[in-house]
Amino acid sequence: MEHLLPLQVEYLLMFGIALFWTIGYILIIYKGFKDQFCGMPLAAICANITWEFLLTFLMPFHPLQQIVTFVWFLLDCIILLQFLYYSKKSYPKHTLHASVFSLLIGAFLLHYGMAVEFHDTLGVYSAFGINLLMSILFIKMLMTHELLGQSLTIAYLKMIGTLCASILCYSFFPQSVLLTIMYILIFILDLVYVLLVYNKSIKIIHISRLPMV
How much is the pLDDT for 209? Predict the structure, then answer.
């Protein structure tokens, strides 16, 4: 692992990752309760929770990191409970629970397998794999459910938090072609997501200002 950036810049980026993503999670929870709709796709929830569980309880590499991932784990548990609660009318109970359980087990095994296969004790490869998945699924969710559970602020926080992580990890692993490709793809998709949310928000504001007939 290299260090292309000064230590102070690395700490600033770490702080940005923790801050922007934590606020993003909190706003997803808040918007979910407000709209009575889970603001994160199920596959992304399960991938996040299992990664955070692995890095918090089984493979922690730094006490501060462990605290942050534990906080994220708790917040994602709330988001998962939101999904279960708001989805219970749309799916049979047994089907819903079986799907969640299967995704949790599958995601955990994939995270663990990637950590062992790539000797990735930091969980970097699976972390950016999750982010790429989330970037795709958030756009899909926006196309399907409009702005339910989503907002422009959440979109910006997701993009900036992940950009901080991308810059930091590029400083650590500049030789990784796979990670570099994921950094670029995630940023492009996050930018597209921000623009789509912005356009939908503008349309809603415009419609709300139209005179009543």
Answer: 58
